[in-house]
């Protein structure tokens, strides 16, 4: 038994074509809307990411609350905090000749990572540079707790030519030559410790 196929009238074929065209148009519009939505989401995420990157680029690292400690086994610890005032007539401290001492720093970092931080210390006596040292401190990320860095122990010079007034400039600089600490102070070296620390 064979199935009978009725021929489709031209008006029915036109209606079916129109319905198929409408379905295709709706599907195409939906696909276009989906594609537009995807593009918009991508653009928004790109903008927010680039905004975050820009904000990060804009934030310069900052080094706060720098303190310099002079530690001598025979004396109380001396702390130098910015700001302070020092002149040749108002020395910040006196060291005994041939005495052991070491320097210690503390500081906090905020906003961004500070890279290649280094400590530069230059000392003069009567206008002549007698010492220049540079120590690489490292790279530090932002945090509330202070970082503490201690230098190796050293010994003050001794003898008649070693005694007297010294000028020291201490700087803390990063690898982009941004200067976070730049202090100049005066101290002297004497034969004996002063009576009051």
TrEMBL record:
Keyword Zinc-finger: no
Keywords: Cytoplasm
Keyword Cytoplasm set for record: yes
GO biological process: Rho protein signal transduction
Cell compartment(s), UniProt: Cytoplasm
Name of protein: Rho GDP-dissociation inhibitor 1
Gene Ontology CC: one annotated term: membrane
């Amino acid at each position: 038994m064979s199935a009978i196929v009725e021929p489709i009238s031209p008006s029915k074929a036109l209606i079916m074509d129109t319905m198929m065209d409408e379905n295709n148009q709706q599907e195409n519009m939906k696909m276009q809307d989906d594609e537009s939505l995807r593009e918009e989401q991508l653009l928004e995420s790109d903008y927010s990411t680039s905004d975050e990157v820009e904000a990060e680029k804009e934030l310069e690292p900052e080094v706060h609350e720098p303190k310099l400690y002079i530690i001598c086994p025979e004396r109380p610890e001396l702390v130098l905090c910015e700001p302070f005032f020092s002149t040749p007539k108002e020395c910040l401290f006196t060291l005994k000749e041939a005495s052991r001492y070491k320097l210690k720093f503390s500081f906090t970092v905020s906003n961004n990572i500070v890279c290649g931080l280094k400590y530069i210390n230059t000392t003069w006596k009567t206008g002549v540079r007698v010492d220049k040292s540079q120590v690489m401190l490292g790279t530090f990320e932002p945090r509330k707790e202070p970082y503490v860095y201690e230098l190796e122990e050293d010994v003050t010079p001794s003898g008649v030519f070693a005694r007297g007034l010294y000028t020291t400039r201490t700087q803390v600089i990063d690898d982009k030559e941004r200067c976070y600490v730049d202090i100049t102070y005066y101290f002297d070296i004497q034969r004996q410790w002063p009576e009051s620390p």
